[in-house]
């Protein structure tokens, strides 16, 4: 479920590659098209036939992945606020994917192609904007020309190119978008598609015959769901449904609009232009600009509030954030005005005072509900994202007598802010600056990645951490 977008991309590449291969076998003419597709499925079933099936099933898979991806982003509320862009640009992707798939079905020029072509044309004719009804092209056997067929082939080549362009626009605003599934997922899915293609190959209906109306058709429900609606309700109703549905989807991010707190502010006096906030921001909301204040650094960070989700990951990335200073000197390069690092240290101090020598659980607003933890000897601090916590704060807590620090965030790969969990793990493991200093005993730091419904698991993980800390304390006391 975390890979739906990447898998949709992957299926696109499979459809593109297999499309190029089957085009070699394809004959672009009214009479040749059906014959050549039959040749692929019957005479060349072991190669061209498999390629045809892969082409069809990967396209179906794209529709399925896209639908699930849309529902997932919506149900996780990842479509409002600054994310409106990805959502909004997803809407034309739906249209282009449908246009790509349906135009492909025409090319087989079998009974199903005839049904789809005629239905689509009648649907456009319902708008009444074409002088001559386009559906007239399908009135009799002779009216379908090779030239018109060549046009269909062009449509089926160019619409997917527009689709690819739209998919690129769709992910352009997130930094380092994940567009490739992990290798295991890719290999597994490819194997599944090949097996499916062998046990249930894509086959054609009988050849198109414009003088007949087909009695029985096996619709591809992934793409052809709307044709029976058209048959039942007519063209104008389907236009109302399609345009109304698209407009509704397009404005959904603003129903209701999200109210966000103020965006992070860069304090130039404390920014050395290192660029870590820029590298870690998952939404490309930070730009490194030439220095404007005369300090001897080449760059400075600048926040674009319109792209910013207020996750605070940039605050955790800034190496200037150090809680070891006095409150007056507690400043950093980039800070969230409603939750600055002074406030963050107060929260941490309060938690340590609540559970002296115990466990401080630092959680986020979207993962396990740390605020509901009811455990003697444990206290919680909640931040927008766990990666907002600079590693120096973990050092500080252990230094100031916390028994242990538990970082409890969203499930891995399911991070609300895309890279919060990954960056935190990398900082703890020393793979990413600013990293947790070596002097912090790792036995006193633990991570727990889970969803907001895993309250019992959080409780169990905290108890187990406490037990391990007890054993550690006993051992350390023995050594002394
Ligand atoms: C074939 C179609 C689609 C593909 C291949 C696709 C792919 C992707 C990818 C790769 C991402 C970025 C994932 C990441 O790195 O975090 C993404 C994000 C997103 N997609 Fe799609 N998408 C498609 C269709 C749609 C549609 C139809 C919608 C909704 C109308 C949609 C809504 C979103 C949203 C809201 C995000 C942003 C999530 C965030 O910011 O955390 N996508 N998509
Ligand atoms: S709060 Fe998050 S989205 Fe906004 S600038 Fe910082 S890292 Fe980027
Ligand atoms: S991480 Fe801090 S010091 Fe580095 S560029 Fe960003 S604000 Fe400036």
Query: Nearest-angstrom radius of gyration?
Result: 29 Å
Content of β-strand: 5-15%
Which whole number gives the mean pLDDT? 94
CATH class division of the largest domain: Mainly Alpha
What does the model show?
- With 480 residues, this protein is of the alpha/beta class.
- The chain has 2 domains: 4-254, Cytochrome Bc1 Complex, Chain C; 265-479, no CATH class.
- The chain is 51% helix and 8% strand.
- The strands form 3 sheets. A 4-stranded parallel β-sheet has the order 6-5-7-8, with helices on both faces.
- It is elongated.
- The structure holds protoporphyrin IX containing FE (HEM) and iron/sulfur cluster (2 copies).
- One iron/sulfur cluster is lined by residues 266, 271-277, 301, 317-318, 320, 333-334.
Descriptive labels:
Cytochrome Bc1 Complex, Chain C, alpha/beta, 2 domains, elongated, 480 residues, binds iron/sulfur cluster, binds protoporphyrin IX containing FE, 8% strand, two-stranded antiparallel ribbon
């Amino acid at each position: 479920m975390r890979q739906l977008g990447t898998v949709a991309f992957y299926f696109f590449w499979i459809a593109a590659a297999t499309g190029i291969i089957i085009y070699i076998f394809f004959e672009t003419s009214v009479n040749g098209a059906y014959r050549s597709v039959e040749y692929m499925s019957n005479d060349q079933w072991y190669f061209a036939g498999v390629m045809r099936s892969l082409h069809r099933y990967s396209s179906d898979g794209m529709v399925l992945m896209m639908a699930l991806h849309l529902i997932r982003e919506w149900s996780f509320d990842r479509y409002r606020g600054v994310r409106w862009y990805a959502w909004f640009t997803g809407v034309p992707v739906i249209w282009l994917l449908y246009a790509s798939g349906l135009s492909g079905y025409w090319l087989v020029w079998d009974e199903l192609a005839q049904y789809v072509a005629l239905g689509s044309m009648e649907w456009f004719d319902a708008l009444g904007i074409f002088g001559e009804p386009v559906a007239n092209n399908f009135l009799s056997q002779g009216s379908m020309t090779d030239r018109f067929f060549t046009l269909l082939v062009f449509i089926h080549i160019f619409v997917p190119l527009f689709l690819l362009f739209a998919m690129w626009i769709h992910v352009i605003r997130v930094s380092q978008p994940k567009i490739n599934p992990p290798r295991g997922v890719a290999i597994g899915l490819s194997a599944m598609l090949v097996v499916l293609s062998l046990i249930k190959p894509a086959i054609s209906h009988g050849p198109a015959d414009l003088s007949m109306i087909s009695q029985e058709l096996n619709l591809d429900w992934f793409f052809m769901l709307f044709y029976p609606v058209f048959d039942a309700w007519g063209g104008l109703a389907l236009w109302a449904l399609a345009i109304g549905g698209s407009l509704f989807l397009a404005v959904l991010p603003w129903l209701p609009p999200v109210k966000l707190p103020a965006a992070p502010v860069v304090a130039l006096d404390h920014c050395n232009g290192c660029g870590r906030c820029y590298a870690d921001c998952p939404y490309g909301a930070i730009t490194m600009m030439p220095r404007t204040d005369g300090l001897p650094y080449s760059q400075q960070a600048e926040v674009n509030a319109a792209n910013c989700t207020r996750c605070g990951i940039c605050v955790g990335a800034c190496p200037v954030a150090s809680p070891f200073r006095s409150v007056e000197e507690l400043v950093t390069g980039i800070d969230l005005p409603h939750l600055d690092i002074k406030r963050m240290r107060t929260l941490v101090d309060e938690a340590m005072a609540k559970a002296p020598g115990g466990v401080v659980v630092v959680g986020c607003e979207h993962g396990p509900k740390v605020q509901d933890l009811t455990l003697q000897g444990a206290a919680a601090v909640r931040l927008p994202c766990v990666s907002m916590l600079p590693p120096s704060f973990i050092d500080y807590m252990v230094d100031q007598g916390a028994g242990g620090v538990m970082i409890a965030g969203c499930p891995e790969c399911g991070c609300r802010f895309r890279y919060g969990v990954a960056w935190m793990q990398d900082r703890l493991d020393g793979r990413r600056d600013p990293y947790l200093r070596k002097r912090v005993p790792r036995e006193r730091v633990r991570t727990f990645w889970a969803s907001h419904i895993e309250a019992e698991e959080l409780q169990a993980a905290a108890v187990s951490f406490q037990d391990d800390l007890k054993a550690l304390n006993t051992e350390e006391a023995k050594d002394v």
